[in-house]
Specification:
Blueprint: H1 3-40, H2 46-60, E1 66-70, H3 72-75, E2 86-90, H4 96-99, H5 103-110, E3 114-118, H6 131-142, E4 150-154, H7 160-173, E5 176-178, H8 194-211
Helix pairs in contact: 2-5, 6-7
Length: about 220
Amino acid sequence: MSDEQAARNTTAALHGNLLGACMAFLGGGALLVALWLHFAHRRTPYPQARSRFVLTQASFAGHFDTVVLGDSTAETEWADGVCGRTFNAGIGGARINDLLPIAPSILRDASPSVIIVSVGTNHFTAGKREWIQFSQEYPALLAQIPSSARLILIGVPNDTQADDFIKAEAERRHVIHVPPLTGRLASDGIHANAEGVAVWRNLVAEACRATKRRPANPS
């Protein structure tokens, strides 16, 4: 084989190797894109992600005077210092069954003397009306509250029957019921606007003071 032919063969081999490397690179890139698209559509739902965050925070943050359990009607409120050292464990988008598995750990780690419950809205949104689930799970959640704690139950703004149910639970347990924010205080009919946040804070602060004049949760 002549030197010229050998050179041509070497050049062809280099071109082939380069083309193979490029194809491998592009194939790997396509695989990465495919994997990204796959996992991007499998992102953790917010209630689950927030639940993990809340559990982690509660596990090392120490004792709190008050814990707020609930959905976005709790998470979006200005709870800091409203009733002593206050831990807001509200989880946007949560239903009661999202709180049932995590409430015992949060309450054990925070060991609060006052517990505020503000949940139920998501059982009655987007055309849903999960009355049976709500009416069964709400008492189950309250049953997890330590008997030594003082309870404040906040009503549901988007379902009158659910709010009446919570009010009846409060009366039966001899604990405080705080009416939900509605009308001009809730910009979307559910979540407090700027004026509503101030009203909520005042209502809860007064309820907190009132708990000191009542016995602990009898249940």
